[in-house]
Write a structure and sequence with these properties.
Blueprint: H1 2-10, H2 14-27, H3 32-42, E1 45-49, E2 56-60, H4 72-80, H5 83-109
Antiparallel strand pairs: 1-2
């Protein structure tokens, strides 16, 4: 089910992926990756490869005024993750938060 959910997320089929991640969390409530996947779906996060650096950067398809860092799904993922995974989630969430802030600032100026 993880493979299907991850593929749907990569294909930007956020609602389908969200449904699959929710089922994963029902079956495996202590699996942090299920909550992280739901979080990415909620905000429509797609990772795009930067042609200059080769690094994958987040893009937001669903903006919100709510910070991803304050989202309950983020907190659930952090609580259930190993210390290493938790640190990785925190870094990624901060990067997503920064991207969202930039997009909202541009939107407010327009």
């Amino acid at each position: 089910m993880f493979e299907k959910a991850d593929q749907a997320l990569k294909d930007c089929q956020f609602d389908q992926a969200m449904n699959l991640y929710q089922h994963i969390c029902l079956d495996f409530p202590d699996e942090a990756e299920g909550y992280w996947g739901q979080l990415l779906c909620k905000y429509g996060i797609e990772y795009i490869k930067d042609p200059y650096t080769g690094r994958y950067k987040p893009t937001c398809h669903r903006l919100s005024f709510e910070s991803i860092l304050d989202d309950s799904l983020f907190n659930q993922a952090i609580e259930r993750a190993s210390s290493e995974a938790s640190e990785n989630y925190r870094k990624k969430a901060q990067e997503i938060s920064d991207v969202m802030k930039t997009i909202l600032e541009i939107s407010n100026r327009e």
